[in-house]
């Protein structure tokens, strides 16, 4: 193992501290908790309709990956100086090196989101309908690539569920975030009933879209102003990718660290048994 148990526990504490800090609501989230009728009046109908299309997109994604699947073959580009070509090879890559890889990925996607938001903000109302599905696609792809960097295959249905849960996490209030963290902690559980419960929660995945609409949709109102929409679009999309990337990184790194701790414990048990024999 590349890290000692003490080092892994120290890194795990960072992830858990981050989770505790999510209890603070930022301005957007506070406003997002206004009665839905008020939000409904603020958000134009065409935005509601456009974001409604995401229902079908997310449905296809959960079932088959749809058109959003990232390829594990991109692994080499994230670790150019390492002999890495498969997810199994990441067993020989430290958590710190994984963190560096996703940090570069995050910065790259933030720049891309900024340009994308500014570009689609030029035409205000006329280009806004293009921006919403583009942003969703970039968000899903970013989470998939973060998964790959930490050694998880986004082609697996379990990972697609995890990714949608991260999307839901970012859009949720404090109570929702706590519930999702509890669900995500069970996704690798050896208890089949626990895992089934997490998957069954996705039967209500339409809630993700509703929360996504409340979380992102009304912010896009500011992007409807021609020319000024460039500034708003760049800021909103950059912030959306930044927040999502941070959540994806912290939740995936925590999962990877916990797996390594289990491996260390199993290795210790095996060594003790061998000595006793």
UniProtKB/TrEMBL annotation:
A Pfam family it matches: EcsC
InterPro entries referenced in this protein's UniProt entry, alphabetically: EcsC (IPR024787)
Domain of life the protein comes from: Bacteria
Protein name: EcsC family protein
